[in-house]
């Protein structure tokens, strides 16, 4: 018998159709992964089970939890089920906990709100589950506050809250998307262990197909609010029926071919760079301590070379990016482009700035919403001594738009008229418009859906051929770096711990940290035979 | 926590110091010699010199500033130019009216605003919310002294529940004193309560959209329980800021309201002093008001730390 | 457009029109005494009645609107012209001594309620409408500085500002080109709110005699004059009070309406 059975679930919010006749079921002890790109309705499916839908939601169909239709239950009755029979874990651990209450109170709340135990028993149970999720009491007493914990630790607290009453069903909505790969691997292990130990059903929502393939007993693929394909993991992976499923898996492991590199000839030289931040003083009269975000980093980037920089959050890669761009001055060492220093006499060197540009991660925050595309793309002209004007300027903008696969007519539009992928194309056009010698891609494809990401990667490979680009590609995503770079550097705690030809580093990592990174990253299974 | 308190305390002292310099400098710019003003145009030069010495006006300005500040530290605010009595005594008498009035109004305003704001947030978009919001829209548009006049007209002149003005004094018992401050306190409190209720509501609504509220709901906490258990305390952080700001409005506002009710408070003292060019009194009253505002803001900073554990542990 | 916006715009423009019209025409000469007809209740001849000198209240309210609006407008102008650049500068130089000085200066000014500033100024210069303008204006500076800085700081974190910096643009240029246009809506809304607070503050100051001096009519002083006569001529107090309430409420509704109308998030949601 199934634990959860969703039948013909349809949902509309303010009469916009979100879900269309969704069917899926979960047996006790089973892990079912719901996957799809943004807008597929996968998170709304989870919220519909919890009956935590936004205002204006209208549902039809049925959501049966052991023969009880959740859609027809009253709100007070739902409250007795939430947390007790169904637990839920959310995506963003940094904001999922109440900042003004300690973790003990928050875990105990699950127990006490259902009047399941006395206060002292609840406290003992809270200690027990926190220890079970990997937060032992000697280091993480109940009196800890959320801000004293890291993202991964906070996610463990959220999991502890969700399982404190041993629910039959656990729902996890992108539980590891906000976490680093090594933390992700630990949290996924924890979830698998809990399912096995308690015999829970786990409904896991994730966009990451490698995670899906790694975790799930059953896969449900969604698109535009509909289930396009579902089945047992091994069956589905080896026999994909729907073209969308095939496209999705293919795009996830998308490979591009880069043109050959020219003869090595150094362009960017980074020598012994140190960037420190002053930490807040601990005591009133203590000498302030310093944090070395970038610790004695040296490397060179050759003309025409595509170099990758990988590392987990907080490793110093963003700080290094800012230093190279001349946005922050470094405390020691030097950064030279084409032999000229990025900073000269405490001032950024304009002659150097002219030779590089950048593409950022967030397609929504990278543009001034009040300017038209033409003005957005033309912004780097500010760096030139004689910026092009009139028709010359228009031609350059049109050329750039065409180069990134957009139409010259788009120049008169505002940025909100474009999708995330199109915006990232515009960002690339902006970076290319002054034909810089070096482009920095700072997590430039990390916020995109897999199919869009594949298209942008194709575009980059194409631009490498036409404009012989030199770039530094900064990312936490190992699979992307592997295909889009010639050489790669691995950064940990401000230091570059390994550097080498990309294929070499990925195939035979030497440094233990690189090894742990590569081992932790979930990989897509070999499915090439059936994905033609 | 200790470090946080110390840091706030240092910033409190610096603010007080700068404020005292500003006030002293502004008053010093004032044209005219208090001594000749007091004695009239026909005063003899030697009596003027004697009076200046008596008032402490015969020393250099820097010296006078330090005399003024060091005097205030031990409770000596100097001697009134016009009344020739210690300013500290004059202020102390008036403070017993103005300060209780401001605190009374603050208490009323908070007592009205908190339930109103929470009620409106809990019933967002429903008739209860719209009624509260409409009332606060009116409340923030009403000038408090006009509202005071209307209260006098209704409750003192027509219904005769209260006296139209004057202060009964504390010596006749706490109740008598409070009774004569009730209408002024209501007049001060209601418009401020309207602002505070709106801040409370919008701050709560912001919190209701936070991720951790959804987490709480996923634990089986009902909407209303979540509002009380997780919402109110988080919403207090911006509300406290407004309460701190309101105290300065209430203290200054009480100066205006005193005029409506003929209360012998700081307001009357300062207006008399202005017309008599009794600058030492003006200077001291202003310093006292500023001192009160800065101190209340210091207390608000401490209250933040009590509410928010992030402030307690971070530096 | 919301009901708030329309109602607010209507009420505000009504008062503004009355003030503008008063430059050319009032039903009576506001200063003309007519003792025999003193303390008349509202009638066909005198829409708002007459005061204790027999002056026409309607004419006085019109001129009073002029005084109120002039004082509040100039005061908000002072607050904006000084406060916004300070806020932009503090945000552009976040964490430096300049930011620290500006913000501490703000805190200091916040410790001086506008009434206290007015008292100080009057103690030196004597009473007058200019005092009210300066006092309310000074108090507005930190309000605008703080709100500008707060909004600008979150913008400075955005990637389009980083992109502009990479394009070689300096802090001043970025502030003018990218920051200011994106905080303008917020400032317009806040400006409306401060305008209404300015009307209230002006009324309070002139009520205690620190504002416009006789014979210039002002709503606050009309109320002060009315105080002793409330029991037998309540219209003397009711009418100026209602004038203040209508103006302030109109401006507040306008501010709320503008905020909803200008907020692109809400507009997109509605579209």
TrEMBL record, chain A:
It is found in: Cell inner membrane. It is a peripheral membrane protein. GO terms for cellular component: plasma membrane. Residues 4-249, 268-518 form the ABC transporter domain. It comes from the Bacteria. Keywords: ATP-binding, Nucleotide-binding, Transport. One of its GO terms (biological process) is transmembrane transport. Signal peptide: none annotated. GO terms for molecular function: ATP binding; ATP hydrolysis activity. Belongs to the ABC transporter superfamily. This is Microcin ABC transporter ATP-binding protein.
From TrEMBL, chain B:
InterPro entries: BPD_transp_1_N (IPR045621), MetI-like (IPR000515), MetI-like_sf (IPR035906). Residues 95-300 form the ABC transmembrane type-1 domain. The keyword Cell membrane applies. One of its GO terms (molecular function) is dipeptide transmembrane transporter activity. Its main location: membrane. It is a multi-pass membrane protein. It is found in: Cell membrane. Pfam families: BPD_transp_1, BPD_transp_1_N. It comes from the Bacteria. The chain crosses the membrane at residues 12-30, 101-122, 134-157, 177-197, 235-257, 285-307. Keywords: Cell membrane, Membrane, Transmembrane, Transmembrane helix, Transport. CDD domains: TM_PBP2 (cd06261). One of its GO terms (cellular component) is plasma membrane. Belongs to the binding-protein-dependent transport system permease family. This is Peptide ABC transporter. It comes from Ruegeria profundi. The lineage of its organism: Bacteria, Pseudomonadati, Pseudomonadota, Alphaproteobacteria, Rhodobacterales.
From TrEMBL, chain C:
Keywords: Cell membrane, Membrane, Transmembrane, Transmembrane helix, Transport. Its main location: membrane. This is Peptide ABC transporter permease. Residues 65-255 form the ABC transmembrane type-1 domain. It is found in: Cell membrane. InterPro entries: BP-dependent_transpt_permease, MetI-like, MetI-like_sf. Belongs to the binding-protein-dependent transport system permease family. One of its GO terms (cellular component) is plasma membrane. GO terms for biological process: transmembrane transport. It comes from Ruegeria profundi. Coiled coil: none annotated. The chain crosses the membrane at residues 67-88, 108-139, 232-255. Pfam families: BPD_transp_1. It is a multi-pass membrane protein.
